[in-house]
Amino acid sequence: MAAAVVLSASLVVTACQPTESPKPKPAQSTPAGSAPATSPSATSPTAAATSTTSGPTASATPTASAPDAPATPPPSSAPSASASASAPAGVAACAAKSLKVSAWQAAERPVGTGTGAAIVEFVNVSGKACVLKGHPSVAGAGNGSPEHNSPLAVTPTGSASPVTVAPGGKAWTKLTFVQVHGEADGYCKSGAVPSVYPTVVVGLPGSGSHQVALDDGQFAECDDTVTVTAVSAVKP
C-alpha cells in the first residue's frame, strides 16, 4: 500500500509539470521586442521616397522656365527686316522730263532674224536723285508716231523694287520679243505676219512714256507680245 501511495504521488507530480510549462511566455516577449527593429526599416523607405521625389521637383522648375527665353527674340528681328525693304524716304518718282531714254539690241537674244531682244536705258538728267520702279509697258509706234501706236501684250518677269537713280545715274530694263525667222520680211512660226516698228513707246509707272528707237535698226517682232524685266540698277 505504501508503494501505491508513492506511485500515485509521482503521477500527480508528473501530471502537474505540463500545466507549469506556459511559464516560458517571456520568450514571446522577444518577438514583441523585435517589432522596433522592423519599424526603422519601414521608415527608411519613406525617407528614401521623400528624397527621391524632392529631387525631380527641384529640377522641374528650371525646365519650365527655359522655353520662355527663346520666345522673345523673333519679334525684334521682324521690324529690322521690314525697315530695310522700305523705299527711300523723301525721294520722289522720276518725272518724264528727268529721263533720257535709249535702246540697243541685246547681246543675248532668241535665234532668228528679228530684233529678238533689246536693252532700254534710263539716264537721270535732272539735278537730284529720283526713283524708278515697276515693269514697263510697250507699244509699237506706227510710222514712228506715238499717237498711232499698237500696244503689245506684256508678260512681266522678276519682282519689282524701287531703284534710286542719282543725278547722271542709270537704270535698265530688257524687252524680249517673239522672234522673226527667215529672209527678207521673214515669217512667224505662229503663222502671223511680222510687225516692224521704227520706234516703240516705253512707259514706267509714275515716270511717263518715252518714244525710243534702236541705235542699229528697227523693232521687228511676231505676235505683238513682249516679255519685260522690272527696271533694275543692274544692266541685263
List the defining traits of the structure above:
6-stranded mixed β-sheet, alpha+beta, single chain, 236 residues, 4-stranded antiparallel β-sheet, elongated, 3 helices, 30% helix
Topology, element by element:
Layout: H1 2-20, H2 26-65, H3 73-84, E1 99-105, E2 117-124, E3 130-132, E4 137-141, E5 149-151, E6 153-157, E7 163-165, E8 170-178, E9 195-197, E10 199-203, E11 209-213, E12 219-229
Parallel strand pairs: 6-12
Antiparallel strand pairs: 1-2, 2-8, 3-7, 4-5, 4-10, 8-12, 9-12, 10-11
Radius of gyration, in angstroms, nearest whole number: 52 Å
Query: Which percent range fits the helix content?
Result: 25-40%
Number of helices: 3
Order of helices and strands: HHHEEEEEEEEEEEE
Count the E strands: 12
Summarize the model shown.
The protein contains three helices and twelve strands, in the order H-H-H-E-E-E-E-E-E-E-E-E-E-E-E. The protein has 236 residues and is an alpha+beta fold. The N terminus is likely disordered.
Describe the 3D structure.
This protein has 236 residues and is an alpha+beta fold. The chain has three helices and twelve strands. Strands 1, 2, 6, 8, 9 and 12 form a six-stranded mixed β-sheet that branches. A four-stranded antiparallel β-sheet has the order 5-4-10-11, with no helix packed on it. Strand 4 and strand 5 (149-151) form a beta hairpin. It is elongated. The relative contact order is 0.16.
